[in-house]
Amino acid sequence: MLDAYIGVLVLWPLVAGLACLVLQSPGVRSALVLATGAALAVGALGVASQAPFTANPGFLSSETALHVAEAAAFVFPAYFLLRGLMRKHLLVILFSCAQLALAAFGVTQLPAAPAAQSAVVCDGLSLALLLVVSFAGSFICIFALPYMKHHEEHLHLKVSRQPGFFLVLLAFLGFMNGLALSNDLRMFELFFEATTLCSFLLIGHDNTEEAKTSAFRALWINCLGGVFLHSGILLAQKQFNLVDISALVNPALWTGASMLPIALLALAGCVKAAQMPFQSWLLGAMVAPTPVSALLHSSTMVKAGVFICLRLSPVLQGTVTGKILLLVGAFTFFATSALALGQSNAKKILAYSTIANLGLIIACAGIGTPVAVSAGIVLLVIHAATKGLLFLCVGDMEQTIGSRDLEDLRGMVSKSPVTALAAVAGAMAMILPPLGMLVGKWAALEAAAQSPVAMVLMALGSALGVVCWVRFAGTLLSGKAIKPKASPTSALTSMPILAMLASAVGLGMAAPWLNALLLPEASAASALSGGWGLMPSLFVVAMLGWIIGMKVLGRQSAATLSTPYIGGLPSVEKGTYVGPLGRTWVLSEGNEYATELFGEAKLTKFLGALAGALLLALVGGAII
Questions:
Q1: Residue 77's pLDDT band (cuts 50, 70, 90)
Q2: Each residue of 451-504: pLDDT tens digit?
Q3: Alpha-carbon gap, residue 183 to 61, rounded angstroms
Q4: Residue 504 Cα distances to 203, 500, 511, angstroms
Q5: How far, in Å, are 56, 76, 173, 207, 340 from residue 132 at the CA level?
Q6: Residue 524 is assigned to a structural domain of this protein
Q7: Is residue 95 part of a domain?
Q8: Where is average pLDDT lowest: 368-377, 409-418, 432-441, 566-575?
Q9: Peptide bond into 289 cis (omega under 30)
Q10: Could you give the C-alpha distances from 221 to 450, 467, 611, in angstroms and in order?
Q11: Rounded-to-integer distance, Cα 434 and Cα 438, Å
Q12: Which of 84, 138, 143, 609 has minimal Cβ neighbours within 10 Å of its Cβ?
C-alpha cells in the first residue's frame, strides 16, 4: 500500500497535468485539479500514517529510474542551453554548459556509485515538506482555477493557455513530492532540476517581455545552483563513493574529511531559496500570475532550498561550515526584513518577507542542534500555510480593484471583507503570540545563543518584521469605514483562502505538538515544547485584543470621521487647505516607507556584496 501512496504523490500530478493538456475542457480541468487535491491529501496522510520509514518502491528504486536520472543530468541542461541560445542569454548558456560538462565528467571519469540502500526515506523533515506540498500546493491549484479564468479575460486572450499552465502547475507538485522522499542524490538532482524547469515555464507564462526577462533571470540563477549541486554530488561520490543522503549526513563520516561537498550542497540550497545575493530571481517571479507566486513562495521551489540545508544539518552542527551558514541565514533574515519596509508593492513585501523567513530556516540548519532543526521544520510548515494565505489574498484583492499597491489596498476591508480580514489574520499570524511563526523565531533565537552576532541579526530582523506586518494589516483596515459590500470572491476562490486561513491559525496554535509529531526524537530537548503552559493564556489575550479591535472598527463604521487639523487657512475646495506662500495643498494620507533608509536602490548592492562575501567564506571555510 505504501508503494501506491508514493506513486500517487509523485506520478499522479504529472498524469493529471497531461490530461489537462489533452482534455482541454474547463469542466474536465476543474475536475482533474480537484481530484488531484483529493488524491494528494489521501497519499500524504497514507504516508504519514506509516512514517518514519525507509523503503524501495518499485518505480523510484528501479534501474530504469536511475537511468532516467542519469539521462536527465544531460537533458535538462541541454534544454536550458537551447533556450539560452535562442534568447542569446550568455549566463544561461555558460551555466548550462557547465552542467553538461559536470554530467560528462561524472559519467566518464568517476566509477559508477552503488545505489542508495533505500531509495526513499521519510522522516519528520520529509513528512513536513510532503504535507506542505500536498495540502498548500493543492489549495493554490484550486485557487488558480477561477483566477486564471479572470486573468486571461483581463489579457483578452483569444486562445487559452490554461491547459499548458495546469500541466506545469500540477507536475510541479509531483516533482516536489519526489524531491522530499528521494534518498539517492541522483534522483534528488532529477527532481531539483525539474523544479527549475517548472519555475522557468511558469514565470514566463504570460509571454510578455517582462515575463521573459524574469523567467531567464530565474533560469540562469537556478542553473548556477544546479552547478553547485552537481559539483557537490560528484565530490561526495569521488570522496566516499556514496550517493546515499542518509549515509552522507553521518557526522562520523566527515571526521577529518573535507567539508567542501557539504558546503557546495548547502550553497545550492541557498541559491534555490533565493538567499542574498540571489534574491532577484524570486522578486522577478512576482510578474507571474498570483498562483505561481504563491506556489513558488510557499510550498515549492524555495522550500527545496531550505529542505536540502536542513537535511545536511547533522553534519553542520559545531563545524566552521555550519557557523558560517548560520550567519548567511541570519544576515539574509535581517537584510531582507529591512528591504521589505521600503516596499509599497504588496507582492514585493510578501516576497522579501519570504526570503527573510527562509533565511531564518537556513540559520537553523547551520546551527544543527535538535532545538534548531525542530524550529526550522516548524517554521517551514507554518510559513508555507501563512505565506500561501497572504499571496492568495493579495491576488484576489488585486483582481478586485486592479492594483497590488499597498496604498491602493487601503480600507480594503470595506470592499472585500472576507479576503481582507483573512489577509489581516495572516499578517498577525506572522508576529502575534502564541502562533507558530513567533514561537519558531523564539526557538531559533534560543538555539542561536552560541552566536551573539546571529542573535542580534535575528532580533533586529524580527523587530523590522513586526513593523512591516502591523503596517500591512493596519492599511487594509484603515481609511474611511463604510458599510461593507458583498465579497466578489467565488466559492472556488474563497474556499482555498479559508482553508489556508484555518491551516495558518490552526498549525500556529499547534506548533509544539507539530514539533513533537514531526521530530519526536528532538521534542524533549526542543524549546518549542518548553513554555507551552503559558501559551493558552497568551492566546486568550491575543483573541481578546482581536475582539476589541473588531468592536472598535464596528463603532467607527457608524461614526462621522472628522477631518484632521491642518495648520493653515481653510480652503473653499474640499480636501485641500491653504498653506505656505498662499498655495493650495491637497490633503492626502499614506504610509511612510523610509526609502532613504530602506529603499532597494540604497541597500541592495551593499547588502548583496556582504552576503556574497559570506557565501564565499562558506566555501572557503570548507576548503580550509
A1: very high
A2: 889 999 999 999 998 988 988 888 888 765 444 444 445 566 678 888 888 888
A3: 10
A4: 26, 6, 11
A5: 23, 26, 10, 29, 25
A6: yes
A7: no
A8: 566-575
A9: no
A10: 32, 31, 15
A11: 7
A12: 609
Query: What's the gap between Cα 586 and its chain centre?
Result: 41
Place of cell 513562495: 297
Structure confidence by residue, pLDDT tens digits, 346-365: 889 999 999 999 999 999 99
Site of grid cell 490552526: 506
Contact predicate 48/63, CB 8 Å: no
- Is the N-terminal amide bond of 52 cis, ω within 30° of 0? yes
Show contacts of 534-540: CB within 8 Å, 24+ apart: 534/434, 535/433, 535/434, 535/439, 535/509, 536/434, 538/433, 538/434, 539/433, 539/434, 539/509
Residue 609, C-alpha cell as written in the block: 556584496
Give the 3-state secondary structure of residue 159. coil
CA distance 323 to 367: 7
Q: How far apart are the first and last CA of the chain?
A: 48
Residue 590, Cβ density class (10 Å: 0-12 exposed, 13-18 middle, ≥19 buried): exposed
Contacts of 177 (CB under 8 A, 6+ apart): 9, 10, 13, 40, 130, 133, 134
The residue count of the chain comes to 624
User: What residues pair up with 53 in beta bridges, in sequence order?
Assistant: 122
603 domain residue, yes or no: no
Instruction: For 383-395, give the DSSP string.
Output: HHHHHHHHHHHHH
pTM score above 0.85? yes
Distance CA 10, CA 15 (A): 10
Indicate the number of domains in the chain: 1
CB 396 within 8 A of CB 489: yes
**CB-based contact 244:120 (threshold 8 Å):** no
What's the CA angle centered on 30, arms 284 and 23, to 5 degrees?
95
Residue 334 domain boundaries:
325-530
